[in-house]
Design a protein that fits this description.
- The protein has a domain at about 80-120.
- The radius of gyration is 42 Å and the shape is flat.
- It is an all-alpha fold.
- The chain contains three helices and no strands.
- It has helices at about 65-75, 80-100, 105-120.
- The longest helix is centred in the last third of the chain and has 18 residues, at about 80-100.
- It is about 40% helix and about 0% strand.
């Protein structure tokens, strides 16, 4: 395969004596879409007349206070697992402190668990 010779390309002559790079034209700004003209009210032939909404039944309020009082009583005595864990952790620390931080950590934890569980059961 034979290669074709390159064609001589000449650059246009600069108009000024200083060789300044040619400026590229600024990109055209994108135009925002024109806002749609507002239609006069009541002239939409496509929409049928809306049906009146069916009347709603009144909510029963007799059961709500009983549930709320049950929740309040349960929330005072109920302790989340995370809270129970923190309580046991604190109690185990103080038990270990009484023993000068010497001894079996697992035994301290079990003792604290028994104390906290008995306190929570008493509530």
């Amino acid at each position: 395969m034979a290669r074709e010779p390159k064609k001589n390309v000449t650059k246009p002559a600069a108009t000024s004596s200083a060789a300044a790079p040619a400026k590229k034209p600024a990109p055209a700004a994108k135009k925002a879409p024109a806002p749609k003209a507002a239609k006069p009210a009541g002239t939409s032939p496509k929409k049928p007349a809306a049906k009146p909404a069916a009347p709603r039944k009144a909510a029963a309020t007799t059961k709500a206070p009983a549930r709320a009082s049950t929740r309040k009583a349960a929330s005072k005595s109920a302790v989340s697992p995370e809270q129970r864990y923190r309580m046991i952790q604190d109690a185990a620390y103080y038990i270990a402190e009484k023993h000068g931080f010497t001894g079996d950590n697992h035994a301290f934890w079990l003792q604290a668990e028994q104390e906290i569980d008995s306190e929570l059961a008493a509530k």
